[in-house]
Amino acid sequence: MWSEVLARFSKFPAQARVAEVLLEHGFQVNSAGAVVAGSIRIPDTEIAREAKVDRRAVDETTATILSDEMLKNFFSNIKTFVFLRDVAPVLGLGVIIITPQDASQIGIIEEVAQTIAEYGMSVRQAVTDDSYFSEDPKLTIICDTRIPGALIDKVLRLASVKGVSIF
């Protein structure tokens, strides 16, 4: 899907950078061509600064998005969400970040979640990086308690797991 989105911007590198910023942050483009997060409008100058492009490239990108049905459907439906990783320690939650052997392998989340459940722990949130968007995709799992060392050892022994870090 991402390759299809990028292909629509292949002749416009500044627009491609803007589209990447929109995607990274989960920003939508509304029917008026404004960049928004929910109902909050994001100024074009801030998008341009992040993408390292001129502000006019943001306007051109949103115009391109609205003129293409696939891009319009994609960017009008993308959503931001609360990712607990960085606040988990403040909340007394545990964070385990998994580097998979092969991110396209089926069942990685199931295998890791089952191992966590064996320790009587609950998964509060599981977030994976999409291998289309990330060169080094990770699986981040937020648990209801701190992560014990024995669990890390067991997760490291899973065939699908290349590495583990705790947060």
Tell me the number of structural domains: 2
User: Which percent range fits the helix content?
Assistant: 40-55%
CATH-assigned fold name of the largest domain: Alpha-Beta Plaits
β-strand percent reads: 15-25%
End-to-end Cα distance: 31 Å
Residue ranges: pLDDT <50 for 5 or more in a row?
Answer: none
Strand order of the largest sheet: 5-6-4-7
Please identify the structural class as seen in this structure.
alpha+beta
- What is the count of β-strands? 7
Please tell me what the overall shape is: elongated
What would you note in describing this structure?
The chain has 167 residues and is of the alpha+beta class. Helix 2 packs across helix 3 (44-51) and helix 4 (55-67) crosses helix 5. The two termini are 31 Å apart. The protein has two domains: 2-77, no CATH class; 88-166, Alpha-Beta Plaits (2-Layer Sandwich). Helices cover 43% and strands 19% of the residues. A four-stranded antiparallel β-sheet has the order 5-6-4-7, with helices on one face. A three-stranded antiparallel β-sheet has the order 1-2-3. The protein is built from eight helices and seven strands; from the N terminus they run H-H-E-E-E-H-H-H-H-E-H-E-E-H-E.
